[in-house]
Amino acid sequence: MANPTIKCLFSAAVLASAVLGGVKVTAAAPLQYNLQPQEIARDTWLLQGKTEDFSRKNGGNIVNTAFIVTKDGVVVFDTGPSFRYGRALRQAIASVTDKPVVHVFNSHHHPDHFLGNQAFQDSTIWSLPETGKQLALHGNGFTDNMYRLVGDWMRDTEMRLPDKPISEAMMSQGLEMGAHRLQFYRFSGHTGSDLVMLDKTTGVLFASDMLFFQRMLTTPHTPGLDIWRQELDKLKAMKYRKVVPGHGPVTEGSAAIDQMRDYLSWLDQRLKKSAEQGLEMVEVINLPVDERFKGISLSQAEYRRSVVHLYPAYEDAQF
Amino acid sequence: MKRLIRIGLIPLLLAGLSFPSAASQTDPQGSLMWDYMRKLFLNDDPYLFDERIKVLVPEFAEDPTQVPVSVDARALDGDIRQIIAWADFNPIQHIFTYRPLRDVHPRLSLRIKVQQATPIRAAVQTMDGTWHVGTAQIDAAGGGCTTPSVGNADPYWESHLGEISSRRFSRDFGSRYKFKVIHPMDTGLVDLIPEFYLQQVTLKDEAGNELLQMDLSQPVSENPVLTFDTKNSDQSHYLLLRDNNGNEFEQAL
């Protein structure tokens, strides 16, 4: 129970300070991300975002970012939705280690994963070659849209492209950083170019947005649900101890992969059957998601978006 | 204000109908454009907002160049002269005018371009001349009308212009026709690309009787996908289309 006396005193103090000098001031809540790094494995820290949609309240902090502290320096996996987030991420790193940030990876070209890049001027930022091309094409448009969605949290944010494409040699040989052996994998299910990183030393799999857990997946740039499903099978076959999804809580085992696969199969069937019956897009949008997905955050909202992204191809298949 | 009330009462009294209590002359969207649009499309005729006219759109225009819109006026079936649809805040507001003539359910679907968040209206004129207005709001990040058609970067349409794919679905109410036409539907609002769009759609039966006529405007999406519902499931039909350059396309469905 909150103590009402303390609460009243606090309010009085706030009011008093607000009318100081006879000028009434309406103070906006300070825009602070308050990132709290959680140690999920040895040397491995997670900044877990909310399982929400972008809003002016959350400042776009709906994404998981992570970093690994090695004796050769820090490796960062994704930089968050804004310059402000990138700076908060640097502070979170500095609260754990004084090692420099050497390598930064952008997992894919969605704005919540790369717009913190500006805070990493002194590091090398890497992405898959195709991600770099997608960013050059769409990155500024995504940035503008983020200003529309979350407002002042974005102040001073501009797209900073990755510095280098991950080379074939790095893809095949991986990267040694201190005692950590990092291996990279190229997937495509979520955006056509999705980077997955496995720390072979700790067994932590950084699955990026190939994996959502307890937060409904998004499909604006998927090359196809079947491709995504096949790649999830590959992900499931990999040897890992813990998996960090792009959105949602960390898990051991395959609960996250199984949940996604189940939904993708269900969605594929829903769209196929609807197209076979000649349903119009709005009719499909207005159908409910299956009961078993209702506990997943944003399931109905993301289902509706996915119908818009994917249904035209299912309709075309019926002509 | 007084005049508005009078306009509203006349049809109520003349027709002797009891409209649902939701019927009113106040724009549920409170759009600044309502009065201007009303005069433009409804000629100061008597009108009322009528919840029985369903305008179905998603809450947000995920792709502002392909926004699905369904209009369902079956509540007034048999008493409909025409349906006019428009988007208040599009640079070209008119979307379509639809005239059901025989054997069709007054329900149709298509996709449109939206330039920004806007109300979407469907005004249904009954035989007594009154307009029954259905309305919905769509939120959008914008830009659908001033984005070049995909076809402009890809010459595919030049060799496939007017190609019609169609499919008939058996439904409990009769048949549903869904068809897709290859056409750039250029709005004329993009640099140096003149307007080029399908203007007329006619659905006929084998005997040549017209089931419906439709006039389309530039906001209809590129490669239009249209859905019509017919009452008969045992007849064959054909479709006639004409664009603003005079190209005519015909397809047995």
Biggest sheet of chain A: strands side by side, in what order? 1-2-3-4-5-6-7
Please outline the major beta sheet of chain A.
7 strands, mixed
- Fold-level CATH name of the domain at 32-254 in chain A: Metallo-beta-lactamase, Chain A
How big a fraction of the residues of chain B is strand? 35-45%
Structural class of chain B: mainly beta
Q: Can you tell me the CATH class of chain B?
A: Mainly Beta
* Count of the separate structural domains of chain B: 1
Q: What distance separates the N and C termini of chain A?
A: 62 Å
Q: Give, in spatial order, the strands making up the sheet with the most strands of chain B.
A: 1-8-7-4-5-12-11-14-15
Radius of gyration of chain A: 21 Å
Q: Look at the structure and give the mean pLDDT of chain A.
A: 92
Give the beta-strand count of chain A.
Answer: 12
Rg of chain B is 18 Å
Shape of chain A: globular
- As a percent range, the share of strand residues of chain A is 15-25%
The first-level CATH class name of the domain at 32-254 in chain A:
Alpha Beta
Number of helices of chain B: 3
Largest sheet of chain B: 9 strands, mixed
Q: Biggest interface and its residues per chain?
A: A-B, 20 and 25 residues
Quick structural overview:
The complex is a heterodimer of chains A (319) and B (253). Chain A is an alpha/beta fold and 319 residues long.
Protein model, in words:
The complex is a heterodimer of chains A (319) and B (253). Chain A has a domain at 32-254: Ribonuclease Z/Hydroxyacylglutathione hydrolase-like (Metallo-beta-lactamase, Chain A, 4-Layer Sandwich). Helix content of chain A is 37%, strand content 19%. Chain A contains 9 helices and 12 strands. Chain A has helices at 4-18, 83-94, 111-114, 129-150, 168-173, 225-237, 255-276, 281-285, 299-316, and strands at residues 38-41, 44-47, 65-70, 73-77, 101-105, 124-127, 164-165, 175-177, 180-187, 194-199, 204-212, 242-247. Chain A has a 7-stranded mixed beta sheet with strand order 1-2-3-4-5-6-7. Chain A is globular, with a radius of gyration of 21 Å. The model of chain A is unreliable at 1-20 (pLDDT under 50). Chain B has 253 residues and is mainly β. Chain B has a single domain, classed as SoxY domain (Immunoglobulin-like), CATH 2.60.40. Chain B has helices at 2-15, 34-42, 156-160, and strands at residues 47-49, 54-56, 67-72, 80-87, 94-100, 104-112, 118-126, 131-138, 164-171, 174-181, 198-205, 210-216, 225-230, 237-243, 248-252. A 9-stranded mixed beta sheet of chain B has the order 1-8-7-4-5-12-11-14-15. Chain B is globular, with a radius of gyration of 18 Å. In chain B, 40% of the residues are buried. Mean pLDDT of chain B is 88; it is low at 1-21. Classes of the chains: A alpha/beta (319), B mainly beta (253). Chain A binds chain B through residues 145, 148, 220, 277-278, 280-283, 285-286, 304-305, 308-309, 312, 315-316, 318-319, and chain B through 56-60, 62-63, 66, 68-70, 109, 111, 141, 165-167, 169, 171, 176, 178-180, 225, 227.
